[in-house]
Write a structure and sequence with these properties.
By secondary structure, the chain is an alpha+beta fold. It is built from five helices and seven strands.
């Protein structure tokens, strides 16, 4: 029996529970390949969480197969770099497409759907949507599980960083960017 090709769509606020479950399942499966405990548990709690602003803005996407969300991710025209960064003043500020990069945010794929091009598909949609709004560059904060995807897609790694989590733990990551092709 063949599995149907996942269907792409814009996520809605009604998807919040299913996206949250997917994020946590994905992080719990992928993060132990790169991080030690208790950093994995902390990352599942603080990184794998839905940012409702992305859903409200219509810049977050899902891929569904068999009625289940199997991948999610999106982009933002706002200043917040990643959900686990906490709530800082200015996070909701709209970025200037002429001088600032759009943000790629919260990419997660269910473990049994990994390595099938779903992450690339979401990145392509993010890039197209950001281009349509006049952005010329994408930036992101990558955790280690996402690094191979972003490098393969053409992102350049700029700096290795320790991503601080609200409980005082950190996980290794990297800042990255990619020009948006005209």
């Amino acid at each position: 029996m063949s599995v149907a090709e996942p269907v792409f769509r814009v996520a809605t606020l009604d998807d919040r529970g299913a996206i949250d479950a997917l994020m946590k399942e994905s992080a719990a499966a992928h993060f132990p390949r790169f991080y030690e405990e208790p950093a994995c548990s902390s990352a599942v709690e603080y990184i794998a969480i839905v940012d409702p602003m992305l859903l409200e803005d219509g810049t977050y996407f899902v891929l569904e197969a068999g009625g289940e969300i199997v991948a999610c991710g999106g982009w933002s025209r706002r200043d917040k770099l990643y959900t686990g960064s906490g709530d800082a003043e200015g996070d909701a500020r709209l970025l200037d497409p002429a001088t600032e990069p759009a943000r790629v945010r919260a990419m997660f794929v269910r473990d049994d759907w990994s390595r099938r091009g779903l992450g690339r598909r979401i990145l392509e949609e993010c890039e197209a949507a950001a281009r349509a709004e006049g952005f010329r560059e994408l930036s992101l904060m990558s955790t280690m599980p996402g690094l191979p995807l972003y490098l393969a897609y053409g992102f350049e790694k700029h700096e290795d960083v320790d991503i601080p989590l609200p409980d005082g733990l950190t996980v290794p990551g990297a800042t990255m960017s990619k020009p948006i092709e005209p």
